[in-house]
Amino acid sequence: MTRVVGLDVSKSSISCCLLLEKPVSPREFYYECQFYKFQNNGAGLIGLLALHPEVAVIEPTGVNYSKFWTEHLTKAGVEIRLVGHKQLRNYRENHLGLPDKDDDADSLALACYQFDYGDDLSRFVRIKDKLVSRIRELILRLNHLTRVRSPIINRARQDLAWQFPEIAFVRSVRRSSNKVPLMWGWLAGERESRRYDTLYAVTAGLGLTDSVRFHAKRICDLASEEQLIEDELAQILTDARFSSYRAVFLEFNFGIRVQAVILSQIFPLENFFGEDGKPEIKIRKGRKSGNSTKRHLSLRRFQKALGVAPSLESSGDISKSKVSGGSALCRRALWQWVFSAVEPARRRTNPLLKELGEFLDTEKASGKPVKLVRMRVAVKAVKLLFKMLIATQKVLD
Fold first, then answer.
1. Of 32, 268, 326, 361, which is least packed with CB atoms within 10 Å of its CB?
2. Crossing angle, helix 130-163 and helix 256-266, to 10 degrees?
3. Least confident of 112-121, 150-159, 271-280
4. Is there a contact between 87 and 125 (Cβ–Cβ < 8 Å)?
């Protein structure tokens, strides 16, 4: 018999249910089962491993909270299985009929899920490659640093408006990999600048205070941390397994960050294919027209992963389509890429970007809202990306 543990992960602890087989009546078993609670510390880890689990089933919730347990369990030789939130909720409520949601009920449902669907890997969330997981961690950290930095910069600019107004709204960014932004570096005393020395000598402001210098130091520290992360990302992306993907990315003029965000969602591309290892296309009759139409299922999954898959909402005479679900991080990155790399005419440096740019110009000229136009361009770009990646894979095969 397989020793299966269902783990419901919280911020500082886990609720654990150990099963050797699926109970006949999970609802009744819930009131009799011995549930365990382990803290995120050495004693808690020893307690969990003392149960001698062979398979651990977890929801992919809170990367930082679950990482403590998944890393240690993996090192101990325990197989990790991930169950999607929606799948678990439907399974717990409709299949098991468990009482109102709580941590113990979730841990029992996770353990039971393994006994019902353990032989069908399609029922579980795929565990990402270690390098891809690391890419995702770094991307999330970069986004966190951006959120932290913005209010600090805003506060510093407000102070500079009366202390040194001539530079209050200067845009200062990193120009080289080993130096902090010039203006903030000068304010923090980390870089020299004759230009800023001269400006400050004749400023109409009331003079710099320690508060601004502390803010500038924080901004420089964040910039240095960003640089370290970007350097690690650039190094990871040189892995040979990513070379064919990056060759296609360069056609789109994707920067390092956009490449990393997309790669973290789509690698390996085969995850989107059918059982035969090819893009899955099914022919079905249209519900309204009755005509046979092709359903590009692999492309749809690819779009969904990148956050640009349209979903249809209809009620009575009202029918509308909108982009929802998938990775909000990817959707934001693609929108920013359209804004910075496709919309400016000077950035359209190859036939692919010119094609996307002409499409964008035509859509704008038709009077459609700019936000909608940019998203339509992102959707078109993702479809082209999928097509080009498949072509590259075929060449490699």
1. 32
2. 140
3. 271-280
4. no
